[in-house]
Write a structure and sequence with these properties.
Layout: H1 3-34, H2 41-96
């Protein structure tokens, strides 16, 4: 496995872990909202709003990074196919001569 492929997999893994972390935090926060005697409603609403904004930003960043990684992979694939086609053409020209 090439280093760039390893790096890409590592970045995707980190994004997934971060996304799961925020999802767990959001679930915990929602669980606390249900339990009114622990946390005042006003404070919970503010925290929920802040967390929702942060979670939305995180999801958007994850989506943007995924799109970037997919585009980068497509670019690399095209480059590798072009190199392969060039090497095949070179071999064909050698044998044709």
């Amino acid at each position: 496995m090439t280093q760039s492929k390893k790096d890409q997999l590592e970045r995707k893994s980190r994004l997934r872990e971060e996304n799961e972390k925020y999802m767990r935090a959001y679930a915990t926060l929602m669980e606390s909202v249900v339990n009114d005697r622990r946390v005042p409603k006003r404070m919970m609403s503010e925290n929920t709003a802040h967390l929702a904004e942060y979670y939305a930003a995180s999801l958007e960043e994850n989506r943007r990074m995924r799109m970037y990684l997919e585009a980068e992979q497509e670019r690399k694939d095209r480059h590798e196919l072009l190199r392969f086609a060039q090497s095949i053409s070179a071999w064909q020209q050698r044998f044709a001569s």
